[in-house]
Amino acid sequence: MVAIQTLDEIQAILARLEGEEIVVLQVLGINSLKSFSPMPDALAGDTIESSAVSERHFTVTTTGHEMAIDLQRTGKVVWLPNAEPYVMAVGPARPTVRLVLANGEGLDLTEPAKTKRITVTISARA
User: Fold this and answer.
1) pLDDT tens string 85-98
2) Distance separating alpha carbons of residues 43 and 55, to the nearest angstrom
């Protein structure tokens, strides 16, 4: 059984994002992206302003967009001290989502099973 992250653990990781610039957001889970406009590449260059966590859901607000994530039951937020865009390769399991920051850090959203249930919805801010 996979240990479920607490809300405090998730919020502590997300707090590290505030004030950072996004280089790339990759949604690698085939069914994970639940919005089609704007696409994830629209977040490149945005600065992350804030985040909020409730239950297994969280939002990240940037200068131009809002991203809503549902971790479902087993999704996990993993901090990456050295993040690069994910390149498809044979070997370790790929993350469902990867966020790379301009400072070289980032995060992955991962799941233990092959069926990807984490969802991502991106919307433009009014």
Assistant:
1) 999 877 777 899 99
2) 25
Residue 116 pLDDT level (bands cut at 50, 70, 90): confident
Distance from C-alpha of 113 to C-alpha of 76, rounded to nearest angstrom: 12
110 neighbors 76 (Cβ within 8 angstroms) = yes
Residue 73 pLDDT grade (very low, low, confident, very high; cuts 50, 70, 90): confident
Greatest CA separation for the chain: 42
Burial profile 71-89: b = 16 or more Cβ within 10 angstroms, e = fewer: beebbbbeebeebeebeee
